[in-house]
Design goal:
This protein is of the alpha+beta class and 118 residues long. Helix content is 25%, strand content 36%. The protein has one domain (3-113): 2-Layer Sandwich (hypothetical protein PF0899 fold), CATH 3.30.2320.80. Strands 2-1-6 form a three-stranded mixed sheet.
């Protein structure tokens, strides 16, 4: 279940960023998950629920954006929407295409609660 590793990475990056900004906790996190990133939603949710315990993200609201897959055919140069990594080009049937979007798994934004003792 590679979702555990993925979640651990996201939490680490988010906590580093939040600490740099002097945050007490993270109130909201927005994620972009590409459809081609091979993330299984249920496994991800499970890993998330357990991973955020005792971290700055423990009470954070999580917003997830699904990014559809987009590829460019290497033969006919057409750009098309792709659901699976090895789908053929719908225009010429070629299997060799370059993935333009849909591989991402990243933090779009973080909302933090700052320390109040100034
Ligand atoms: Zn093509």
């Amino acid at each position: 279940m590679h979702e555990i590793t993925v979640v651990a990475n996201i939490i680490e990056i988010a906590e580093n960023e939040a600490r740099k900004a002097g945050a007490l906790s993270i109130s909201e996190i927005e994620l972009e998950i590409g459809k081609l990133s091979c993330i299984e939603k249920t496994a991800f949710d499970f890993a998330w629920k357990h991973g955020i315990r005792n971290t700055l993200l423990e009470h954070a609201k999580r917003i997830t954006h699904d990014i559809p897959g987009k590829a460019k055919c290497k033969t006919c140069k057409q750009v098309f929407e792709i659901a699976e990594l090895f789908d053929p080009c719908p225009h010429c049937g070629n299997y060799f295409s370059e993935i333009l979007e849909g591989n991402e798994l990243k933090i779009r934004s973080l909302r933090i609660k700052e320390s109040t003792n100034l």
